[in-house]
Every structure is written in C-alpha cells, then in structure tokens.
Specification:
The protein is an alpha/beta fold. 60% of the residues lie in helices and 15% in strands. The chain has helices spanning 3-15, 23-39, 46-69, 74-79, 82-92, 97-116, 124-160, 162-173, 179-200, 207-219, 264-281, and strands spanning 225-229, 233-235, 238-240, 244-248, 251-258, 285-290, 301-309, 312-320. The strands form two sheets. The protein has a six-stranded mixed β-sheet with strand order 1-4-5-6-8-7, with helices on both faces. It has a two-stranded antiparallel ribbon with strand order 2-3.
C-alpha cells in the first residue's frame, strides 16, 4: 500500500472544504522524509533528516487537528505552541484511542528526543520506524478530520433545510414503530437525502465521512435520541468500540457501518462482530449498515438475522444502500 498516496488523497478531499495552510506542508514533509530515507542508503546522515522532516509533519498535523477537531480559528492556532496543543489534546480527550497511542509514541520516542538531544544520531531501522509511525499518525488523524468536516457539513445542511430535519423528528416521535424500525427508517431517509451527494463522490468519500454525515443527521434530534460515537466497553479483557451506540425510546441499539460489497463470509464476520458488541452492551437488537451507494438513488435492501447465544436471543437487522 502506498501510504503517501493515501495521505495525498485524504488531503485533497479535505481541501475541498477547508483551505488550510498546513495540509500541503504536511504532505511535503512526509514526501521529503521518504526521499531522505532512500538517500540514507548511501549516506547514513540522511536518516536524521528523516526524523526532522517527520517532526515537521507531526507539528503540522497537530495544528491542523487543533483547528478542525477543537473548533479553533487560524488565529487561535497561531497563538499556541506545539507543546500547548499537545497538552490540550491530552486533557480534553480529542483524539480517539488509536490516534492517541500513535501520538504519544511519536512524541516520546522521536519528536522529543530528536528536538532536545543534538548529539543524537539515528540509524536506518530507527528512521524507518519513525517514518511509518508519523505516516500512520497523520493518516488516522486525517480520517478523524474528514469525519468531523462531514459532520459539520451535514449540520449546516440540516440547519438550512429544516424540512429534512423535521422528517427525522417525525420518524422518532412515532408511537406505533419499534426502536429498531425507527432506526431503519432513519437510515432509509438518510440514504434518500444524501444518496446523490455520496454517489457523485463515491470514489473519494470514505466510510468515516459517511459516518460523519450520519452522526450529524441523527444528532439533529438529540433531545429524543442519545447517540454515542465509538463508546468503549471491556469484554474478556479486551477494549471494544462499536461504531455507534444509539438509544431510542430507552432501548440501546448497536449500529456498525461497512463500506463494502457484502458477501457470505463478510456478512457472517460482521454479524459475529456485532454480536460481540451487543453482548458487551446488553443490547438485544443491533444493525449492520452497508453504505455502498453504487447507484444514484439506491433502493434500501433489508434483511433480518436472529442468533441465540447462551439462551439469549439477539436480533440483527442488515440494511444495504
């Protein structure tokens, strides 16, 4: 996999909505770090330059994430030092767990050591680990930024198109529909309202961006629906994070997103994954949403699955658009 190409595609996607001063710089620093790594094969002094360019990419990513994820202005970003931004992220739970671990690792093992110890020299293995670490950090961070921008875009759209927001509200307040069927109806309406936009950008729009659109969509009725994005639960010593835990009419529902063509083995694996989440959250009903949008106006396909584990019955609805 060409990680640099993936990062370039992410940056191009974000720049459609966010005219950041930092995005192109982040890409340039990682691109040069890769070049220096190759040059280090013939001159080991270039391995230090890999680290220094990685540090610049790291700090650029920090500033961009501070602006978008923490809802700051360019002026507010400019006033903060990287150290102050780091402390802000650590104390305000901005980063998701996977991003946080990469963030801490790069800061402690590469950025801080190379910044404060001028006698330090790095070898090929260290340069390789640093380059892959900062590239992974930037990639996951950009995914989080893409989702946040999609969330904000949907929020703005629903504010301007009040009739669409009212349709979601009407679905939720219905007294004759079960909570899981309300969620099905919400997804069907979400698909109807957003299918053209997603279809026209299907080669570029990511699973995370679709989740950002949906998150803002369902939160438009936040006083009636309680939505948690990637809540953490423990089961058998493992930390697990379903995509969404949605509570409708006091019933908790697991919702897992997929952006792939569902086949037999994929469906079975997805069902097993959601069953694990349902057991951890004491949910009896869950949903898998295959958000493919391979047609401009897809007709949602709905299937039901019933599984019995330890004498408990679990109902999983599978919906495909």
């Amino acid at each position: 996999m060409d990680v640099l190409k993936e990062i370039e595609l992410q940056i191009n996607s974000i720049k459609k909505f966010d005219s950041s001063n930092y995005l192109d710089s982040i890409f340039t620093h990682i691109d040069r770090a890769e070049l220096y790594y190759k040059q280090g094969k013939s001159d080991s002094n270039f391995f230090n330059d890999v680290i220094y360019r990685g540090n610049q990419a790291y700090e650029g990513a920090l500033k961009e994430s501070y602006k978008v994820l923490a809802d700051k202005t360019e002026e507010e970003v400019f006033k903060q030092t990287p150290n102050e931004i780091e402390k802000f992220f650590e104390t305000n739970n901005i980063f998701r767990e996977r991003v946080l671990q990469l963030f801490k690792n790069y800061r402690q093992e590469w950025r801080n050591k190379s910044t404060h110890d001028f006698k330090l020299f790095f070898d090929e293995s260290e340069a390789f680990i640093a380059l892959t670490s900062v590239s992974s950090f930037v990639h996951l961070l950009l995914k989080q930024i893409q989702e946040k921008i999609a969330y904000q875009t949907q929020q703005k759209k629903l504010t301007e198109q009040k009739e669409n927001a009212e349709k979601i509200n009407d679905i939720v307040i219905s007294n004759s529909v079960s909570p899981i069927d309300k969620l099905v109806n919400i997804i069907v309406e979400f698909s109807r309202q957003n299918s053209e936009q997603i279809y026209n950008n299907k080669q570029e729009i990511s699973e995370g961006e679709i989740m950002g659109l949906f998150h803002a969509y369902i939160e438009s009725v936040s006083n009636l629906v309680n939505t948690q994005r990637e809540p953490q639960f423990n089961i058998g010593g493992r930390h697990i994070r379903p995509d969404f835990l949605i509570e409708i009419d006091n019933e908790p529902l697991i919702l897992e997103f997929k952006r792939m063509k569902a086949t037999g083995s994929i469906i079975n694996n997805s069902i097993n994954q959601v069953l694990l989440y349902m057991q951890a959250t004491n949910s009896k009903r869950g949903m898998i949403y295959y958000a493919n949008f391979n047609e401009p106006n897809p007709e949602p396909k709905i299937k039901k699955n019933v599984s019995i584990l330890n004498d408990k019955t679990y109902h999983i609805t599978i919906i495909t658009t």
